[in-house]
Design goal:
mainly beta, two-stranded parallel sheet
Length: about 110
């Protein structure tokens, strides 16, 4: 999740067409333009955690979903989008959902 505040000029960045470095900056830093709304670990592999993040673009009032992996322990030095040269976030919207839960019969 966001670890620091930064002053990078994000004005011309397009969340649908980013470099790996730009995507990493959005996921790890709060800025005047982009904010991480949710960041959940949705899967794991032997050495990595797979994350799904929801990013708000405060300039356009749009929301994007981002997927990334990072090292699962302090010994794994993999960072989000470290090996990606081009990244595209997908535009999403929040919708109400009906869900069910299994409960014990009394």
């Amino acid at each position: 999740m966001c670890t620091e505040t930064d002053t990078t000029n994000y004005e011309d960045w397009n969340p649908l067409d980013l470099t790996g470095e730009q995507a990493q900056a959005i996921v790890y830093k709060d800025s005047y333009r982009f904010k991480v709304i949710e960041d959940n670990i949705t899967d794991t592999s032997r050495w990595s955690e797979i994350h799904t993040a929801i990013i708000e673009d405060k300039k356009t009032n749009k929301f994007y979903r981002a997927y990334y992996s990072q090292g699962a322990t302090e010994n794994q030095e993999e960072k989000a989008y470290e090996y990606d040269s081009n990244v595209s976030f997908e535009e999403v919207k929040k919708v109400p959902m009906e869900s069910y839960k299994w409960v014990k019969v009394k």
